[in-house]
Amino acid sequence: MLKNAQMSLYLVKANQQGGGSFTAYTYAGELPSCAFGFNSHGVGFTLNAVPPTKEEVEVGGIGRNFISRDLLEAVSIEHALQCIHLPNISVGHSYNLIDVRKRRLLNVETASKNRISVLEIGSNPFFHANMYMHLEISQANDVNSICRQKRAAEIPKSSQKEILSLLGDTSDENYPIYMQGPTLCTLCTIVFDLDQKTLSLYNGNPKFENVALTFPLT
């Protein structure tokens, strides 16, 4: 399953009319990007799906893939917030917004009916599975995310090495943080390094620190 999924993934580099470019991790047949991306303006992002209940879905609203595609053209973190905060979205999402130049990191949770919560991430580590953490909303009871969130709270994460170990944790046989099937798989792990201004993509379990690719963010 993992090998088949990885064969349908692409890193797309696009040069835009009028200047600027973006790089995005893209699933075959979908808009870039439903996973992560960054652009030449120093704006990057990663995404987490969050499971709302059925009554939270706005039929006919803007799909989240169109919003994340728009994010790739954001010229600042403020512009990225404008792209996200729309009154007519179909379903919410969790966005980690990164301003490489100003060294800012925001976790933004959105929902239909024009709801949004913005959390600025400072020196304290922050872990976000596929569930709402700070926006009050009716959400599905996702045992997988609850278990991963609980496990992350137990693991030291004061250094990059410890965080990579956390992201590679498999101690919970039923709901590991690093998933290897048969139902769900961790396709890749990335690190935005704001000190080095790089994005590194890790091959396999990140606790082994096997960097496959590194991209400059400036």
Automatic annotation (TrEMBL):
Give residue ranges for domain Peptidase C45 hydrolase.
8-207
Q: What is this protein called?
A: Peptidase C45 hydrolase domain-containing protein
Task: Give the source species.
Answer: Picea sitchensis
